[in-house]
Specification:
Elements lengths: L2 E5 L4 H12 L3 E5 L7 H11 L5 E2 L6 H10 L4 E4 L6 H6 L1 H21 L4 E7 L11 E2 L11 H19 L4 E7 L1 E3 L18 H9 L6 E4 L11 E2 L1 E3 H17 L4 E7 L5 E2 H12 L5 E4 L10 E2 L2 H7 L7 H17 L3
Parallel strand pairs: 1-2, 1-4, 2-3, 4-5, 5-7, 6-15, 7-12, 8-11, 9-14
Antiparallel strand pairs: 10-13
The structure holds uridine-diphosphate-N-acetylglucosamine.
The site of uridine-diphosphate-N-acetylglucosamine has 22 residues, from helix 7 and strand 9.
């Protein structure tokens, strides 16, 4: 059984990927320092899979600590999630973001070279496209621009660091997955997103408002040039996203030569903020307390994926719908209530 090191494996996307790796016969090894994740999630992984993945409580920026993991285990590939991801916070504390996200990545890359590990899958983001000029459906070849936040810029710089490392080490196999907007939770209700503090992302804010953690949701902007005046995103179920990582590892297993490439991981469909609210109200059978507010600075108006390349090369496509994701997110929010979270 191949060992796959999953940094940030107790986090939102990481934990769902750990489950899918186990389901597909891989042996995930988690590295997570739990600064933005919760041991509750490890218990959830075990309930779903009946397996307790080996877990190291380590900060990936600590190279000496990280080396121990590579000395103790034969690692086939790395899926690197561990990073900060709050856009607003990154604007306030850019150096915190650049340090953690870039030192984390370079430490991982150094260990790959030191311990002769070839395979890397990196968590990137559609933020590298910025606001699409003209057509809102972006392909991997669409123009990349400097993202409007240090968080987003750390993803673009990370992609460049990976490319340069590949250029100097052509035996490496490195893939950047550009996620669109991950939402939802595992359908079992055992794992899901556990935002620390007030969530920044739309769906956690919706479910938390509906359950009474916040008084009301503010919809940021009502006069964008879209059909209903609100921003449009490509929301993708986190389980589909998790499966994309497994497909990527399987693709790398079949590639003889080194390579560096990037793939869009989205559904190919855009949904507006108001549509998300309407869908949520229908699925949860309750009215949501919301109001229009000012535009949020740095927001892209409209973007969605062209995911053809992922289908053609990785043999991956999204199978679940936005409705499935909202249903699972709402189920997860209700589960959290039972845990008093
Ligand atoms: C942002 C990043 C994305 C990143 C993700 C990580 C940009 C442009 N996008 O996604 O790259 O991977 O965060 O967390 O930097 N909204 C409301 N009210 C709320 C919250 C959100 O109306 O309380 C709206 C936003 O204005 C936006 C949509 O909901 O139109 C989605 O927002 P969000 O979930 O925060 O994701 P992005 O900003 O698209």
């Amino acid at each position: 059984m191949k060992n796959i090191l999953v940094t940030g494996g107790a986090g939102y996307i990481g934990s769902h990927t750990v489950v899918e790796l186990i389901n597909s016969g891989f042996n995930p090894i988690i590295v997570d320092d739990f600064r933005n994740s919760d041991p509750l999630i490890l218990a959830g992984i075990e309930k779903i899979t009946n397996k307790e993945p080996l877990t190291y409580k380590i900060d990936i920026c600590n190279k000496e600590a990280l080396e121990i993991v590579f000395k103790e285990n034969q690692i086939y590939g790395i899926i690197h999630f561990a990073a900060y991801k709050a856009v607003g916070e990154s604007v306030e504390f850019p150096l915190k973001y650049y340090f953690n996200n870039l030192v984390g990545l370079t430490t991982i890359l150094e260990c790959m070279l030191e311990f002769s590990i070839e395979n890397l899958v990196f968590s990137s983001s559609c933020t590298v496209y910025g606001e699409p000029a003209g057509v809102k459906e972006v392909t991997e070849n669409s123009r990349k621009v400097k993202p409007s936040s240090p968080y987003g810029n750390s993803k673009l710089i990370s992609e460049n660091i990976i490319e340069d490392t590949f250029t100097a080490n052509k035996h490496l196999k490195t893939i950047c997955l550009r996620y669109f907007n991950p939402i939802g939770a595992h359908p079992s209700g055992q794992i899901g997103e556990l935002p620390h503090g007030k969530p920044n992302n739309l769906l956690p804010f919706v479910t938390q408002t509906a359950i009474g953690k916040h008084e009301k949701l503010t919809v940021f902007g009502r006069d964008y040039p879209t059909d209903d005046g609100t921003c449009i995103r490509d929301y993708i179920h986190v389980v589909d996203l998790a499966k994309a990582h497994v497909k990527t590892i399987k693709f790398l297993e079949n590639e003889a030569e080194g390579l560096n490439d990037a793939f869009n991981i989205g559904t190919g469909k855009g949904t507006s903020v108001l549509e998300i609210i309407k869908k949520f109200e229908k699925i949860s059978n309750q009215k949501l307390n919301w109001e229009f507010g000012k535009r949020r600075s740095g927001d892209v108006i409209e973007i969605y994926a062209n995911a053809k390349k992922s289908f053609e090369i990785l043999n991956w496509k999204a199978e679940l719908t936005v409705d499935d994701a909202i249903k699972d997110a709402w189920n997860w929010e209700n589960t959290l209530k039972k845990f008093n979270r």
